[in-house]
Every structure is written in C-alpha cells, then in structure tokens.
Amino acid sequence: MSTFPATRLRRLRRTGALRKLVGETRLDLSDVVMPLFVSPEALANEALPAMSRHTVDGLVREVDRFASSGVPAVLLFGIPEAKDDEGSGAWIDDGIVQQALRALREHFPELLLLTDVCLCEYTAHGHCGVLSGGEVDNDATLDLLARTSISHVEAGADAVCPSDMMDGRVGAIRQALDDGGHEQTPIVAYSAKYASAFYGPFRDAADSAPAFGDRRGYQMDPANVREALRECELDLAEGADVIMVKPALPYLDVVRAVRERFPVPVAAYNVSGEYGMIKAAAARGWLDERQAALESLTAIKRAGADIVVTYWARDLAAWL
Ligand code: PBG
C-alpha cells in the first residue's frame, strides 16, 4: 500500500460532490419514522415542538404538513381521556390512538401507521403493565398487550411496536394477530430497550412517568450488551419482524452488535432526551441544531441502523 505523498486522503474531501460520491453512509428520508402524540386536548410545546400533543383533528393537520415531503411513517402515542389500573384506554375500540388511526388512514392512504404498544400512558400508576403485589405482573400483562395490538390493527395500523419489555409479549402479540387473521401485520419490537434517563421529555409529553419506583424491573440495565443480544434472539424466535435498540446515541455499540449478529432490519430510537439536549444547547447558541441533528442521525445509521425513529423526521424533509 502506498503512503504519503502518493496517497493523500484529502483529495476525496476537496468538494461537496466528491465527498458525497465516496460517502459510506447516507441519511435517507425513506428510512425515518416520526413519533407523534395524540390526546383529547392539544398541548403545544414551544421548546420541543415535536413533543406537542395533538387532538385527532390537529394530528391530521400536522401530518398534512409533512406527509407529502417523503417521510414514510409515523409512530403514534396516545394520552387517554382517563387512566385506570388496567390501562383500558389502550385497547378500547374508541381509544385515542384508534380514533387517530381511523382519521389518518382515511386522509393518508399511503402513510405507514405504526403504533407504540404499551400500557404506561394508560395506567393510573404509570407502569407498563398491570400490578400485583406492588410489582408489574408479566403474564397478566401479555393479554392486554395482545388486545391493544389487535385493536390498533383493526383501526388501521400497518405495524405494531411493543415497547413494554415484558417477557413473551412478542409471541403473545404474534399469536393474537394470527388468530385474528392479521398474519401479514409486522411486529417492530423494542427488543433492547434500556431503563434510561433519556426518556424525560417523553414522559412529560405522554404523561407516563411511573407514580412510584422506576422501570428497572423490566427495562434493561444500561451496563449490558450480551443481554441485548439475548433479548433480540428471543424476540425473533417469537416472531418479531424488526428489532429495535433504544435509546440510540448512548447505545451505538449495541446497535452495531445487533446489526452484526442478526440478518433482520434493525431500528434505533433517537429518544426525547437526545432531541432535548440538542434543542436546549441550540437555544443557548452552543451548537447548530441542524448540523448536530444530521451528524447524530448519520452516526446512528453508520452504527448499523436501517430505520431511525426521530423527532427530527419532519425537519429532515426540509434539511436534506
Ligand atoms: C413506553 C415508551 C417510552 C418511550 C417510548 N415508548 C417511555 C418509557 O419507557 O418510559 C420513550 C421515547 C422517548 O423518550 O422518546 N411507552
């Protein structure tokens, strides 16, 4: 191999066209998913616009602003009118996400409608499953997650995304979908979801902070990566079609490990705290939001993600 001066790596960095020609990773609008919050009452968030809550009508207007720009998919989160111990707002036929799905399906036939399947926004105690003896009861929760999934698909969801981290949920959901004649509906499993401090802004937006304790009894310990591979392996064995790592930036090594181990589509969720940190720093003039966001999202793809869930999806359409 030749070295300097025959070799000059700067030659291919000289112009934008050259850099683009040899670029190894491309951020593409067709790989991003925009999360959105729907609730009976709107609640604007000026500092973090993507964390705003929309009514069903407002959601249709919001999606209308970017649907034609090439963002292929949205991921819906619901904040129900009322919460109870079982999170019934998650699966009732006229639940807020179900209403949103029907409205979006009608207005945007081409848009991919993904839904987050979890009980934490719907339970009065804010945990991701039903409680028994002060703990989240894994097996009793599975049936409710399966009911929620069926209800979303019947209302128009193209794929369901279980994010609760119960053991066996992918299998329970797959079985219920198949029994209901929805064997063609994919499951995008939040397989390696960590008990992270970076969900802070989301929990305000979704009103889903646990009323007591934390989620470390079901979400993963940030120290672990081998365990993430086991989670992915089990989810795939249970029928997951896409596996997800969440959060993204502090876990790029996990994205890479999952990418190398499994020949399936890998998603990464660039979560609310990752979005919030850049927004806050940009508001202080400490960094440029667009550049920092593009760099972050490119890094997530470089680590091996095929799909990136990001609160910048809508802005990306204008940036790219
Ligand atoms: C659970 C869920 C959470 C997020 C997505 N799904 C929060 C949690 O586990 O507490 C976080 C997303 C984000 O921070 O952007 N329903």
Can you characterise this structure?
- The protein is an alpha/beta fold and 320 residues long.
- The chain has one domain (27-213, 223-319): Aldolase class I (TIM Barrel, Alpha-Beta Barrel), CATH 3.20.20.
- Helices cover 38% and strands 15% of the residues.
- It has eleven helices and eleven strands.
- Strands 1, 2, 3, 4, 7, 8, 9, 10 and 11 form a nine-stranded parallel beta sheet that branches.
- Helix 3 (96-107) links the parallel strand 3 and strand 4 (112-117).
- Helix 2 (56-66) crosses helix 3.
- The longest helix has 18 residues, at 138-155.
- It is globular.
- The two termini are 36 Å apart.
- The mean pLDDT is 97.
- Ligand PBG binds next to helix 6.
Features:
nine-stranded parallel sheet, two-stranded antiparallel sheet, binds ligand PBG, 11 helices, 11 strands, 320 residues
Secondary structure topology:
Layout (H helix, E strand, L loop, with lengths): L15 H7 L9 E7 L14 E2 L1 H11 L6 E6 L17 H12 L4 E6 L13 E2 L2 E2 L1 H18 L3 E4 L6 H11 L8 E6 L6 H7 L19 H13 L3 E5 L5 H10 L4 E5 L1 H12 L5 H14 L4 E4 L2 H7 L1
Parallel strand pairs: 1-2, 1-3, 1-11, 3-4, 4-7, 8-9, 9-10, 10-11
Antiparallel strand pairs: 5-6
The structure holds ligand PBG.
Number of strands: 11
CATH topology: TIM Barrel
- CATH class (first level) name: Alpha Beta
Helices and strands: which structural class? alpha/beta
End-to-end Cα distance, whole Å, is: 36 Å
Largest sheet: 9 strands, parallel
Order of helices and strands: HEEHEHEEEHEHEHHEHEHHEH
Shape: globular
Helix fraction, binned, reads 25-40%
**CATH architect. name:** Alpha-Beta Barrel
The CATH homologous superfamily corresponds to Aldolase class I
Average residue pLDDT: 97
Can you list the ligands bound to this structure? ligand PBG
| Number of discrete domains | 1
Strand content: 15-25%
Any low-confidence stretches, pLDDT <50, length ≥5? none
Based on CA atoms alone, the radius of gyration comes out at 20 Å
Note the total helix count. Answer: 11
